[in-house]
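I am hoping you can look over what I have pasted underneath with an eye to the fold:
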Amino acid sequence: MHEKKLETLHDKNVVTLLLAQLRPKQWTKNLLVFAALLFSFEKINPVTIGNSIAGFLLFSFVAGCVYIINDYADREADRHHPVKRNRPMASGALNPAVALGFGSFLLLGSLIAAYFLNPLFTVLLAGYFILNVSYSLKLKHIVLIDIMVIATGFVLRAIAGGLVIHVPFTPWFLLCTMLLSLFLAIGKRRHELTLLTGDEQGNHREVLNFYSLPLLDQMTSIVTTATIISYSLFTFTSGRTIHLMWTIPFVIYGIFRYLYLIHIERKGGAPDRVLLEDKPILITVLLYVVSVIIILAVFE
């Protein structure tokens, strides 16, 4: 099976391989850019919608550049991973020099385009890129810091959404985003720890040697509790209608469902894939978005 996948990769042209290298399936993470627009219902118009879409694409392109550097740095380690060994560079299908050259061009173009949306957005994208390159080269090897950096990336996505449509954020919103991001990052590490055994853990990701399932489970419990409490307080203190409290059950169910997938079905290594493949979570997210829109439209 693995040999067939390698043959398929080698048969693809360079453009297709470069597109795959940008990991478009993981761009669902960048949908968080639209959170600011969702909670700023009164500002929704063609301009803000267009800016949010542009911000989403530019963030996705910069994130893709990070993936290129990450896969370049990890190409040897990824060959020991049952799934990641099929990535373009790890499999040998894509020339690393071509990937790095394409990434440099895409990064420069994205930063220039971001300036016309908001100069601060350019600064944020540059900061995101530097932070994640540092993660790829060093920070991912530092226990706990690796999880914090992953979570910070999600927070920057949320801030970016506000910058492109020029709206401020409440501290509660950023706190909720950080805690939910920590929840997903911890779940990712737990999945990796259970997926790989023995020497495979250290060969694929050195930091896994410093984690244990009891530690990650305790961290998950703490972050889960804090996330639910923080979101509940956010609905009451955000300055928006108090009827946002009716969205709390969706958040609780979504978190519980994700915990079920992590502990029972052994999933959680790729939150973006879970969002698209698990129907209960996908339906919950859609109902949550629709309920927020209806509540803000009717009660504000």
